[in-house]
Amino acid sequence: MTLGRIVTKLNLIAGEWLAGETEIENRNPSDLSDLVGMFAQASADQLEATLDQARVAQAEWAAYGPERKQAVLMNIGNELMSRAEELGTLLAREEGKPLAEGKGEVYRAGQFFTYYAAECLRQIGENADSVRPGVEIDVRREAVGVVAIISPWNFPTATASWKIAPALCYGNAVVWKPANITPASAVALTEIIERQDIPKGLFSLVMGSGRSIGQRLVESPKVNAISFTGSVPVGKGIASAAIQNLTKVQMEMGSKNALAVMDDADLDLAVTLALGGAFGGTGQKCTASSRLVVHAGVHDAFVEKLVAGAQAMKVGHALEDGVQMGPVVSEQQLSENLTYVDLGKSEGAELACGGQRLEMPHDGFYMSPGVFLNTNNDMRINREEMFAPLTSVIKVGSYDEALSVVNATNFGLTSGIVTQSLARATHFRRNARTGVVTVNLPTAGTDYHVPFGGRGDSSYGPREQGKAAAEFYTTVKTAYISAGTPV
Predict the structure, then answer these.
(1) Is 120 in the active site?
(2) pLDDT score recorded for residue 182
(3) Pick the catalytic residue: 105, 252, 385, 464?
(4) How confident is the model over 218-236, as a mean pLDDT?
(5) Mind listing the pLDDT tens digit for each residue in 12-41?
């Protein structure tokens, strides 16, 4: 289907590229005159058709030998890595993160697939003797079935890949609903997967709104498991819908991550970690350092360096050289960010720098990185996830107070400490109530071969990534075997 000279990108429905009932446009947040493309919106009937075909394809895929699956995932991963510049440019263009971050994300997505390609060959079960004589026990993991994947816009290729790769590795079919803000990256990844040696309909792309396609997907009895990354309210709605069918659920949701800076910290390192953690990806990361808990002994010196660093950051078009922070992803997100700026001021916080919409040569959703001072942990800007290039400094008088502030949140995804004390570092990583803890590293940035997830309102269900992914994407079968009496 075409609109003028723009070709509408289609959905992959039951193994066929099909137009939808409507289309949406996708524009570059760095330059609103740049139309990235038009993208089809799937219909309810198309979703039902793809779910039906997915069940057929999954049975066929589960019967593939491990080397055949391994080759498929390895091919996907290698193509992503080899095309990291091309696809990273597309990602940066539609999402707004700087080009270097876009290329890095695509390359990392490829690594997810190559990691799980290797895991295809490492699916080894267990065996045991029964308490009953003459009986042996075989324990192994089997595919859970049809997996619905609902992924966010902030890491449109990486987050989707760390869900899709293990789902396929362990023998499942995938029905993927990506965020409508970043459909171009979704189509690009789907094109790579669809070309592989897989059964027709094993992998499907159903672009559409959360209220229509997303809601119907999570309510479907044809879905065996749902992996979701997004907001807490949406996550709770998914869980409520899924429980009606007893559908398995895995969710990564909100966060309010803290970086604690102690009085013995290397201040230059601490500031570098804070700037990268708070403003990398325009602050649109679930692992962003949105609370900076700083010891009174270094508070003033840290703040001086932090504000200077924030003011010096180059904000601009995602594809321009030297840009450190691109635009916010959308007009709605920018409006919400500016509302939080006003809220922080009304709560008594001091806006030391930034937090303003910027006028740039290109019409886009630009905002300067903002730093709040004189804040406390009871303020809403320190309780709610803003998903913005905004961070708050909270002054504390001791390590014990810092740890208490770090843990005083409903969320529990990541936390970090900057210190030269082994004792403090050890105590912090043992007592910080988050799923991920960092020492002298930013709160943002995790590896693909180890578990990822949080506590409290941040996560629900089994962990993602690494070998831990098997817990969600498989189900355990225990078999008892009696060989009878030997002759």
Answers:
(1) no
(2) 97
(3) 252
(4) 96
(5) 999 999 999 899 999 999 999 999 999 999
190 and 283 co-located in one domain: no
Q: Is the pTM of this model over 0.85?
A: yes
Residue with tokens 């990361």: 285
Give a three-class secondary structure readout of 41-97.
Answer: ECCHHHHHHHHHHHHHHHHHHHCCCHHHHHHHHHHHHHHHHHCHHHHHHHHHHHHCC
- What average pLDDT does this structure show over 463-478? 96
The H or E element that residue 334 is part of is: helix 331-346
pLDDT of residue 1: 40
Out of 23, 119, 286, 464, pick the active-site residue: 286
- Taking residue 211's Cβ as centre, other Cβ atoms within 10 Å add up to 8
Beta bridge partners of 227: 149, 250
Beta 126-129 vs 22-28: how paired, if at all? unpaired
Q: Which residue has the tokens 């709104």?
A: 209
CA pair distance 122, 402, nearest whole angstrom: 43
Mean pLDDT to the nearest integer, 287-315: 98
**The two structure tokens encoding residue 155:** 């890491």
271 and 203 both lie in a single domain: no
Whether residue 286 lies in the annotated active site: yes
Select from 164, 170, 241, 236 the least CA-distant residue to 204: 164
Predicted pLDDT of residue 212: 86
**Domain enclosing residue 283, as ranges:** 257-439
For residue 444, tell me if it sits in a domain: no
Give the pLDDT mean for 333-359.
Answer: 97
Mean pLDDT of 87-106: 97
Residue 337 and residue 460 share a domain: no
Whether residue 445 lies inside any domain: the answer is no
User: Same structural domain for residues 47 and 102?
Assistant: yes
